[in-house]
Design a protein that fits this description.
Blueprint (H helix, E strand, L loop, with lengths): L3 H5 L3 E2 L6 H4 L4 E2 L3 E6 L5 H16 L3 E5 L4 H8 L6 H6 L3 E5 L17 H14 L3 E5 L1 H5 L5 H18 L2 E7 L13 H4 L2 E10 L2 E11 L8 E7 L3 E4 L15 E2 L4 H6 L4 E2 L3 E6 L5 H14 L4 E5 L4 H10 L4 H6 L3 E5 L7 H15 L3 E5 L10 H17 L3 E7 L9 H6 L5 E10 L2 E11 L9 E6 L2 E7 L3 E2 L7 E2 L4 H10 L2
Parallel strand pairs: 3-7, 3-8, 4-5, 4-6, 6-7, 14-18, 14-19, 15-16, 15-17, 17-18
Antiparallel strand pairs: 1-2, 8-9, 9-10, 10-11, 12-13, 19-20, 20-21, 21-22, 23-24
Helix pairs in contact: 14-15
Length: 506
């Protein structure tokens, strides 16, 4: 048993898995066992393999992999796609297999005759052979199925856990689950023996797959609660997106930058703040992409690197539209001032989009980021997943201390609130609404600055025109109410009011 002094001095071993150490608040408790439980296809073997691989690559900590199901050669082949050359590590004495997987011609083991004594001797020898600090065991279900009853299973699991602790290694043991939100493990006892319990889920919601990870138990140590999305990326392995672990520590700047439209800068009190998040909301065709174009042009004119993620239009469409408004995206790209990334939302999961976008931002290091549009990404995610995506993306951009402009599409032509707008409105710094206005059988466009955090701003609803030169903001709408609600009502001007307007400018 552990002494009280040992508990007080408990330290964590960084796993190296991207994002996991943040939600684990440092990593796995050192010298203890962790159960990684999940249904078929939830990435248990990937987690166990990556735990050893990251230890070798980042901490020069050697590892032992005990396999009860897949032959070592299958694991070598399957993990090569993540960039892990297990065979090379074996040659260098950094990785060793303990093969307990059944062979094709192996006879069925008689129940009650299976003894772990010989296996534990092999494990201890392998640990000493390579000086291992990490051990992965995949999977407990195959082992426990060979034992006669529950008391025997529990006794042998305790025996394994105790032996691994005596060896001084930090270990991961994978286990099977029947349901995504049912029992923790197949036999219902694995979680009681392990010091730590981690659950991997690959749930189907609204005809869409969503992978999440949850730290259910970290005995004696703190950790982040709840489920966190993760993705499996070629060349990287498991990448966890630690949304709730994001801290509000970003700095705020008083420096303003141009929107690319002079009249809009005046409405916003002198432009946008350097490290702010902006939302442009409007119906299709109201000019959201045009505003993005002006935003990027304004940045490039000041020699600021700009990055746009487009999810509704191809590169050719974006470039053609920009040329029509007098902006040459191709020229700006050739000068290294602009980077255009176009992807249809359906090509991958929302979590993968998040990881790819973060990688592009870190690589290009822009001063301005535009996403057109967030609403397109709603199609490939659940409501919960999309909300987490929006929060995670905006928080990441804020921590980069750059300005971000997002667009969202309202469900109706004349007004309304989009799902995107509802999710982002509380964390965005500015909201600009674009609306159609019907007056006397003619469709016109209106713009208003609904929100401008930390600054005064013009609250009028102004008409704007679109021509070959782009967007031109003109005078406010007068004698029209209900524009934002989508029910504009025109009020006749009385003679007295007309006279007042005449003499007001004299």
């Amino acid at each position: 048993m552990e002494r009280i002094s040992d508990l007080k001095s408990l330290v964590k071993l960084p796993t190296g898995l991207s994002g996991f150490d943040l939600i684990a608040e440092g990593g796995l408790p050192k010298g203890r066992t962790a159960l990684v439980s999940g249904t078929s296809g939830s990435a248990k073997t990937v987690f166990a393999s990556q735990f050893l691989a990251e230890g070798i690559m980042k901490a020069d900590e050697h590892g032992v992999f005990i396999t009860f199901e897949e032959p070592p050669n299958d694991i070598r082949k399957n993990m090569r796609g993540f960039g892990w050359d297990i065979h090379q590590w074996e040659t260098e004495g950094k990785w060793v297999f303990v093969d307990a997987s059944p062979s094709v011609d192996q006879e069925t083991i008689i129940i009650g005759d299976y003894d772990l004594g010989a296996l534990l001797v092999r494990i201890e020898y392998a640990v000493k052979l390579v000086g291992a600090k990490r051990v992965s065991m995949d999977s407990l279900g195959s082992l426990l199925s060979q034992l006669p009853d529950t008391p025997t299973m529990r006794h042998e699991l305790l025996r394994i856990s105790s032996a691994l602790k005596k060896m001084g290694v930090t270990s991961v043991m994978t286990g099977e689950r029947i349901e995504e939100y049912g029992g923790i493990s197949r036999y219902g006892l694995e979680e009681f023996v392990a010091d730590n319990v981690i659950i991997l889920r690959n749930s189907l919601e609204e005809e869409k797959r969503r992978r999440t990870i949850e730290i259910l138990k970290f005995r004696g140590t703190p950790h982040q609660k709840g489920e966190f999305p993760f993705a499996i990326i070629p060349g990287r392995g498991i990448v966890v997106i630690p949304l709730s672990a994001i801290e509000l520590k970003q700095r705020s700047s008083n420096f303003r930058v141009t929107s690319g439209i002079e009249e809009l800068d005046q409405m916003c009190g002198g432009g946008f703040f350097r490290d702010s998040i902006l939302l442009v909301s409007g119906a299709t065709g109201t000019g959201k992409t045009l505003m993005v174009t002006h935003f990027l042009q304004g940045g490039c004119a000041n020699q600021e690197r700009c990055l746009i993620f487009a999810f509704e239009e191809s590169r050719e469409q974006l470039f053609r539209n920009a040329i029509g408004w007098g902006v040459d995206f191709e020229k700006l790209e050739s000068e290294g001032l602009l980077k255009v990334v176009c992807k249809y939302p359906e090509v991958t999961s929302l979590e993968n989009h998040m990881i790819d976008m973060r990688a592009a931002i870190e690589e290009f290091k822009p001063k301005r980021i535009a996403v057109d549009s967030l609403s397109a990404l709603e199609r490939v995610s659940t409501k919960k997943g999309f909300r987490e995506f929006v929060i995670g993306l905006t928080s990441f951009i804020k921590h980069q201390e750059v300005i971000g402009l997002f667009t969202s599409t309202t469900p109706s032509l004349m007004g309304g609130v989009s799902v995107t707008e509802a999710h982002i409105s509380t964390i965005t710094d500015s909201i600009i609404l674009l609306r159609y206005v019907e007056i006397f059988g003619e469709m016109r466009r209106g713009l208003t600055v609904l929100k401008m955090r930390g600054s005064t701003h013009n609250k009028e609803i102004r008409e704007f025109l679109i021509d070959q030169g782009g967007m031109h903001i003109s005078k406010p709408f007068r004698n029209v109410t209900g524009i934002l609600s989508g029910r504009p009502i025109y009020t006749e001007v009385s003679d007295l009011e007309q006279i007042g307007e005449i003499f007001k400018d004299m």
